[in-house]
Amino acid sequence: MRPAAIAVLAAAALAAACAGLQSDPRADARALMQRDFHAKGSAGMDRLKEDPVQSACNAHRDNPPQALAEKLQQEQMAAIKWPADGKLLGDWKSGEKIAQDGRGMAWTDKGGVGGSCYNCHRIGPATTSFGTIGPSLHHFGKLRGYGAEMQRYAYGRIYNAKAYNLCTQMPRFGHAGALSEQQMKDLTALLMDPASPVNQ
Amino acid sequence: MAEPMKIRATLQGDVADVRVLMAHPMETGQRKDAAGKIVPLHFIQSIGATLNGKPVFSADISQAISRNPVFAFKVKGARAGDTIAITWTDNKGETRTDQAVVRAAP
Amino acid sequence: MRRALVLALAAAPWLHAAAQAEDPVAAEFDKFRAVLEQDNPAELFEVKGEELWTKPRGPKNASLAACDLGLGPGVVKGAYAQLPRYFADVDRVMDAEARIVHCMITLQGYSYAELAKQPFSSLTRTPDPVSIATYVAAQSAGMKIAAPQAHPKERAAYAAGQEMFFYRAGPYDFSCASCHGVDDKRIRTQPLPNFTRPAQAVRAVQGWPGYRMTGGVMHTLQWRMNDCFRQQRFPEPGYASEMVSALLTYLTVNANGHEYRGPGIKR
């Protein structure tokens, strides 16, 4: 944490012209963020650094050229770590709890990480307090079939949604190390287990 | 020292519509603080209102009323320029009185 | 008592009329919210804020009567609706709370460190800048939002703020736009206005400072920006920093021309 006095900020703005606002918004914004954000809890300053996906989506306001998108999607897909035992379905009961849990990775969070899936998606039939940022996942397996390919698609989407659609707003839960392999298997089961309430 | 109330008294015909905003934590005695300790009971127990010094309303209230409560009532026989005074007393014996002038509706 | 019943209703979701104009449930909530706004506990903080503005305080034992919020020393009426703006004495754009903090430091002798230590309201404490900001904002109620763009640094702040609004980063790849750059979406049951559209951008600034019934606390836009970045899994923005002023410039300018209704009341 490095709170700077207002007076010091004013002096810095006058003295170091490059830190102040010039005429390049991209550079200005990045300089301001680098100077005025500070680490807190588990949220370090490294989080501001753009990785290739974020860089491409930021440069093109989430609408990158097709060739670039395909290249980066392939790289993201290649980096997915699939379960070593080849099993993609876990326990849907645990999956439901993980989907409801919105905690984790923020500077106030100290414990485990949930999927916060209901923030954006309709999923099971019992929860009406769902968000609409993402599409409905109700009847996910029932509509698409319960085969191995679809299981792989569901798991892969949860692990790294950007491998399928580069600038989707869905976080890369596996890639970011937010959810564990078991948690992602449980979520896959929530969507793909024929016995899951999602598919009733 | 208790924080001031905000009182509005608007005349409609000969009835004053009085609305009072009271600043008070209204602790139920059931809430736990960040350290896990019970926050002690601290709430307004009684409210009284006078019109030109004459009592027109009194009420005993409980800790079920929420924080920074709003209190609204009507007084018949009021005129523009009259003084409404509100007094509250809480369970710790703290008290506060504020007043406002009854104004005609704009 | 009526208030307790009214608050029981307040536990339900808070829906915006503009986003769901045809929804009868939303219309009922708007009516209910209008009733609450008549007796907003924020007014208690306005009273407190006025007291803090006029009383001599701090190491220099001075009032804030000489504080220039952009319309001249001591001019409070209408100032909030014309912030953020450029201030020559600090050569940067400042939002209302940043400017109040600046005046508390330069006129009254407080230090930035002590004001930034715990800048947001809790159940037991409302920081002075929050009450003062509530008072200042109330003096612009009903006026047209008119954040200036005349000075080059005001325009640069808007452009930088826009970049920040769309900047995706952190472990979840979130930007402000992830939630607030789309139409007709909600997160859980909370509707998300699209701040890139002027008619909806007004909801970024209208109603702030706002009294939040959850916990009975008074919150400002500095708190709202802080809490958004927390939920975006970003690091923490500096309190009253230039970065936050730039972001607020983007949001406010998008809302220019619309009426400032505030201070507000929230779930």
CATH class of chain C: Mainly Alpha
Spatial order of the strands forming the largest sheet of chain C: 6-5-8
Number of DSSP strand runs of chain C: 8
Q: Which oligomeric state applies? A: heterotrimer
Low-confidence region ranges of chain B: none
Structural class of chain C: mainly alpha
User: How much of the residues of chain C is beta strand, in percent?
Assistant: 5-15%
From the 3D structure, determine the CATH topology of chain C.
Answer: Cytochrome Bc1 Complex, Chain D, domain 2
> What global shape of chain B is seen?
elongated
In CATH, the homologous superfamily of chain C goes by the name Cytochrome c-like domain
- CATH architecture assignment name of chain C: Orthogonal Bundle
| Strands in their spatial order, largest beta sheet of chain B | 5-2-1-8
Over the alpha carbons, how many angstroms does the gyration radius of chain C reach?
A: 18 Å
Give a short account of the largest sheet of chain B. Answer: 4 strands, mixed
Q: Helicity of chain C, in percent?
A: 40-55%
Count of helical regions of chain B: 0
Protein described:
The complex is a heterotrimer of chains A (200), B (106) and C (267). Chain A is mostly helical. About 4% of the residues of chain A have low confidence. Chain A is 40% helix and 1% strand. By secondary structure, chain B is mainly β. Helix content of chain B is 0%, strand content 50%. In chain B, a hairpin with a 2-residue loop joins β3 and β4. Chain B starts with 5 loop residues before the first strand and ends with a strand. Chain C is mostly helical. Helices cover 44% and strands 9% of the residues of chain C. In chain C, α3 packs across α6. Chain C is globular and about 50 Å long. At the A-C interface, α1, α2, β1 and α3 of A face α4, α5, α7, α8 and β3 of C. β1 of chain A pairs antiparallel with β7 of chain C, so a sheet runs across the interface.
